[in-house]
TrEMBL record:
Residues 26-181 form the Glycosyltransferase subfamily 4-like N-terminal domain. Keywords: Glycosyltransferase, Transferase. Pfam families: Glyco_transf_4 (PF13439), Glycos_transf_1 (PF00534). This is Glycosyl transferase. SUPFAM superfamilies: UDP-Glycosyltransferase/glycogen phosphorylase. InterPro entries: Glyco_trans_1, Glyco_trans_4-like_N. One of its GO terms (molecular function) is transferase activity. CDD domains: GT4_WavL-like. Residues 208-366 form the Glycosyl transferase family domain.
Amino acid sequence: MLETTPTLLSLTGKTILQVVPEMATGGVEQTTLEVASAIIAAGGKAIVFSQGGRLVNELEDLGARHIQGPAASKNPWTVFVTNPWRLIKLMEKERIDLVHARSRAPAWSAWIATRWTTTPFVTTYHGIYNAKSGLKRLYNSVMARGDRVIANSFFTQNHVIEEHKTAPPILTVIYRGVDIATFNPQAVKTSRRKSLAARWGISLKSVRPRLILPARLTPWKGQQVLLSALFILHQKGIEFECLMVGDAQGRYEYRDDLNVQTQRLGLSECVHFVGHCNDMAAAFALCDIAITPSIEPEAFGRTAAEAQAMGLPVIASDLGAARETIDPGVTGLLTPAGDAHALASAIEQLIALTPLERKRMGAAGQARIQQKFTTLALQRATVLVYQQLLQARN
């Protein structure tokens, strides 16, 4: 349940269209859900255009509408011709007042459609896109072409300013939020933890410190670095258990490589690949320490924030927005990206703490998230952006 309240600004009589590639799983999709909830709570009508996915039912349960189409397509004809025409017809039929795009290919389609219909256009810069050529830089630039551009951290904002020369007041920072009603240790009942532990074949309470890496299986999320760090700890006789929580999302070869690496390092007994999880709060509640060892910068890093909200100390790579969400030595630790030895040392440092010391660090992280990084703050700030644009148009 999202933490929206009736105190959100009014969007009564307004229809907002969000455009995303798909409603599968991830930070973009979760933020789409949260903003749809905020639109409805503010009295507006929320519509999402996407290719579909497992979160469509959740979206519709909120009271939003989902329109299915080839939003994830990168075919130039689809992106620049057929999808803009689809959106123009949809916008005319539903009397769309504002369009919000969250990914590059569908953002180009939405940009063309909104310029044709003179509809206010918002973009959210969710990631740090590589730009090794002028053509790629042009393709990325659509995310900075909104009438208002939202960056999900100051790290992202600095990238947008440097890369696209877009600056305030068009550009504004709205942190991704954590739903602190959901990610609250007191809200996770023992039955949920028992159910998840049984499904994964693990004990409800491990006698060894239990680590969690919450991320989809992709190389830049750092699973291989963590396995190397765990091998170093294993060689030193340090006991632990580790949950790798995340979907392969079609990267089956990488998943197989991880399994081979785990077996080769002799870690099969203490490392568990459990796949996708639809109750991450319960997953965090089963663990003692969270690790997000990304080898590329996180534009925000929602899972590190969610883990802190659940009272876990977090070890993250010292790059990107992790420097904004984690207070080193207070709520967690930062280590050089890709450095397995430094990561092993940080894990060893937190394992050596007493349970009370880890709990104090976790409590500091929980307080930090509640103060700066909530879903409600994201919802209010986004609705305010919508209201300002709509008022300016009127």
